[in-house]
Design goal:
By secondary structure, the chain is α/β, with parallel strands linked by helices. It is built from 6 helices and 4 strands. It has a 4-stranded parallel sheet with strand order 3-2-1-4, sandwiched between helices. Pathway: Protein modification; protein glycosylation.
Amino acid sequence: MSCDEIRDEFNNNFYVSQVEKDFPIAYIFVVYTNAGQVLRLLKSIYRPQNLYCIHPDARQGKRFKEFFTTVAKCLDNVFVVSKPVKVYYGHISITNAQLQCMQDLEKYPQSRWRYVINLCGREVPVKTNREIVESLMKLRGYSP
């Protein structure tokens, strides 16, 4: 896919309220399989003001990471983690992968993200971006 095609796929012509624009969220995806499913998830929650870090499991092949690198090159607010780690189910390596993404998120201060939401490639938020923003605003900077 070309960058024009990828950008068209992500341009959902969705309405983004001022509240959402003023309250960007960072998302971390720790993924190990099914790149197409992860891409559909990303497209479903994608908003231009949010920031997205994708951590492809280092145990996966080169093509798996390259798939996400191609997408990230076309979208300014999506990137692939700089130092992927090998992730094992139920292991501290999951936290290490998330922490690596958090370190990389710090390199994007222009996004002004307020909270980080961790997802794997199979989770789907049941609330809209606006509902998530409204819930997080009630926390006033605290973590639940």
